[in-house]
Amino acid sequence: MIKAISHLGLAVRDLDEAIQLYEQVFGVKVSHRWVAEQDRMEAAAFKIGEVEIELMQPLGEDSPVGRFIDKRGEGIHHIAYKVADVQKALSEARANGLETIDQVPRRGGDGKTKIGFLHPRSTHGVLTELEQDAG
Predict the structure, then answer these.
(1) For the segment 63-84, what is each residue's pLDDT rounded down to a tens digit?
(2) Which structural domain, as residue segments, surrounds residue 109?
(3) Locate the VOC domain: which residues (predicted)?
(4) From 41, 50, 53, 76, which residue has the greatest number of CB atoms within 10 Å?
């Protein structure tokens, strides 16, 4: 089912400050930046090898990323895996007893992917995103 790691999502309070750290200290440049209205966050991504680091700043304390930061602080929010077919992967996950957050795929915040999430209660505490290129 999994083809590769797509990205690691990191929750941050201040996106511009986090971008500055990655550019100045780690020497990487933002490959794209966007606002995901549905998820109420602003994000920026850095491509490092075949994997992206996605920095996510909440657009409100009551947003999913805002609630995550309030509960756990800044840090790793989720891991995303590339799959060939998100709908099939979600169905297979449910058939194997996993709890899904999304029943059907939805468009990713970057507009380039279809995504679905597995609940961390089912994946040993790790919020897991399944991602398919939207083509």
Answers:
(1) 999 999 999 999 999 999 999 9
(2) 2-133
(3) 4-133
(4) 41
